[in-house]
């Protein structure tokens, strides 16, 4: 069948960053593009992920600075949860309409509803059938929920960010990004927070000495961490919930956040019948993001991959597919270095090789800084910060990790040095505005 015999050249399932950053420029090249979305246009990041979370975090970051500057500013800042949640709603409420507008203006046709495959070229949405030459699965992830008695008593991250009143005692299960970010926020807004870890480590992919320091700082502010727990059930009596763990132990809660990870949205799409290979970690793709059925591709979080499942990764993939479909590239996807940050207080961010990986290579040198050695960190009376920069023999930056209140800005500033493999002379040619975090970060190179 020629492409003209299909309704569309490219049809995307899902409308998150794995779709719209590429679908908009693709439609602008004249391709006939459709997007099928079962929920809010824009997907997780704008509606119940990054944008919502960072809005709740803003007063927390301000409070940290104000606390450090006590005596210069007064009184102590008090955070208002209810008003902050309302502010968050104001910030994000127009994003689905805005993104839908961008898609429509570019000529993309939007369909509302849950899509599933009829055959490799046909998607059913309600009573409609839509055909396309190429189909991109960009259906994202959903929260994993512990399958234990009383599971309905626990909640997920979306529900946390919509709470009208902040519960007094919050128990969080899991110790990944969502757990540590939301523990930081809930603690700053005045909740009594307990985090139950499955093992003895949090944020496993981050530099563990920095993670231990983060836990110690949060503990000092009143967060309780209980390690080596197996949560067995939740119960409720007279409005008080109990989290039962390790057979005999319990912790009381007014609200329980199940932050035990997120799983790919692969069920109910008809993938097995078509022969699209996938497993519990996601859809299997080759180096062109093509699934085991040649005209079906995948993009964003739903892909099984070693790259971090983050918005910038999803954007990079959707833009790669746009170039592939527009015919401006035939090359395999070539991921750049992808930085990660946990928006806790302090933040931990990293890029490139980790100090543990570098320790296995004698050609790589590690330079450890106390970031407070830089005068600029005293302007806001930062209390604590460390970073480790990793260099190869020619002094190219090959890795960086930092814990501090400004770690994300430092890692962003260092990104070009690592990705573009700048040599010392090139590093010297780049002049940052002074005095800024970027200029302070660059001094480390
Ligand atoms: C609480 C939270 C905080 C986060 N914070 C950050 C952060 O600070 N920085 C960062 O980089 N990343 C963050 N992330 C991760 C980021 O949100 C994701 O990496 C990103 O949204 C992935 O985009 P995507 O398009 O792959 O998936 P999604 O944005 O999840 O989009 C998938 C879409 O597909 C739709 N869909 C699913 N099945 C179907 C179907 N059958 N038919 C039609 N539509 C369907 C869904 O409704 C959804 O809208 C966060 C995630 C969470 C949960
Ligand atoms: N700052 C950011 O970029 C950011 C913020 C939030 C979320 N995200 C993204 O969202 C996704 C989900 O984040 P997350 O924090 O839910 O997942 P995660 O994978 O980071 O953490 C899950 C945690 O739950 C624990 N766990 C798993 N099963 C468990 C069990 N049965 N009992 C107890 N603990 C268990 C794991 O050990 C881990 O500590 C990730 O892909 C992440 O990239 C990113």
Automatic annotation (TrEMBL):
Gene3D superfamilies the UniProt entry points to: 3.30.390.30, FAD/NAD(P)-binding domain
Species the sequence originates in: Liquorilactobacillus satsumensis DSM 16230 = JCM 12392
SUPFAM superfamilies, alphabetized: FAD/NAD(P)-binding domain, FAD/NAD-linked reductases, dimerisation (C-terminal) domain
Cofactor note: Binds 1 FAD per subunit.
Positions contributing to NAD(+) binding: 174-181, 261
Family to which this protein belongs: Belongs to the class-I pyridine nucleotide-disulfide oxidoreductase family.
KW rRNA-binding (keyword) present: no
InterPro entries reported for this sequence: FAD/NAD-bd_sf, FAD/NAD-binding_dom, FAD/NAD-linked_Rdtase_dimer_sf, Pyr_nuc-diS_OxRdtase, Pyr_nucl-diS_OxRdtase_dimer
PANTHER family: GLUTATHIONE REDUCTASE (NADPH) (PTHR43014:SF5), MERCURIC REDUCTASE (PTHR43014)
One Gene Ontology term of the molecular function aspect: nucleotide binding
Cofactors required: FAD
Keywords of this entry: FAD, Flavoprotein, NAD, Nucleotide-binding
Annotated protein name in UniProt: Glutathione reductase
Disulfide bonds: 45-50
Residues annotated to bind FAD: 53, 115, 301
């Amino acid at each position: 069948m020629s492409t003209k015999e299909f309704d569309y050249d490219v049809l995307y399932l899902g409308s998150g960053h794995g779709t719209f950053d590429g679908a908009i420029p693709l439609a602008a090249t004249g391709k006939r593009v459709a997007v099928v979305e079962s929920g809010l246009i824009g997907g997780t990041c704008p509606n119940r992920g990054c944008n919502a979370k960072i809005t709740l975090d803003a007063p927390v970051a301000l409070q940290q600075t104000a606390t450090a500057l006590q005596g210069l500013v007064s009184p102590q800042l008090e955070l208002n949860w209810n008003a902050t949640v309302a502010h968050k709603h104001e910030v994000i409420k127009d994003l689905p309409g805005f993104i839908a507008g961008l898609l429509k203006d570019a000529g993309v046709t939007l369909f509302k509803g849950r899509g599933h495959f009829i055959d490799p070229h046909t998607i059913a949405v309600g009573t409609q059938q839509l055909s396309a030459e190429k189909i991109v699965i960009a259906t994202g992830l959903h929260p994993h929920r512990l399958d234990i008695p009383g599971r309905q008593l626990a909640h997920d991250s979306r529900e946390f960010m919509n709470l009208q009143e902040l519960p007094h005692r919050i128990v969080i299960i899991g110790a990944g990004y969502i757990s540590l970010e939301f523990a930081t926020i809930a603690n700053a807004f005045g909740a009594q927070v307990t985090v139950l870890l499955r093992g003895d480590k949090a944020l496993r992919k981050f530099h563990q000495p920095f993670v231990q320091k983060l836990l110690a700082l949060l503990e000092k502010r009143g967060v309780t961490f209980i390690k080596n727990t197996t949560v067995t059930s939740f119960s409720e009596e007279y409005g008080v919930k109990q989290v039962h763990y390790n057979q005999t132990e319990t912790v009381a809660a007014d609200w329980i956040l199940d932050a035990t990870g997120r799983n790919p949205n692969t069920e109910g799409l008809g993938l097995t019948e078509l022969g699209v290979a996938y497993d519990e970690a996601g859809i299997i793709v080759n180096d062109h993001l093509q699934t085991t059925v040649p005209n079906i591709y995948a993009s964003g979080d739903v892909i099984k991959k070693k790259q971090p499942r983050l918005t910038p990764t999803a954007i990079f993939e959707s833009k790669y597919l746009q170039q592939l479909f527009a015919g401006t590239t035939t090359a395999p996807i070539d991921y750049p270095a992808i930085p990660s940050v946990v928006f806790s207080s302090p933040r931990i961010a990293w890029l490139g090789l980790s100090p543990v990986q570098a320790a296995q290579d004698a050609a790589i040198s590690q330079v450890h800084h106390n970031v407070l050695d830089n005068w600029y960190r005293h302007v806001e009376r930062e209390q604590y910060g460390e970073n480790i920069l990793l260099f190869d023999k020619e002094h190219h930056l090959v890795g960086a990790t930092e814990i501090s209140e400004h770690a994300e800005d430092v890692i962003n500033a260092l990104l070009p040095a690592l990705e573009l493999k700048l040599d010392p002379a090139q590093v010297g040619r780049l002049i940052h505005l002074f005095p800024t975090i970027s200029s302070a970060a660059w001094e480390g190179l």
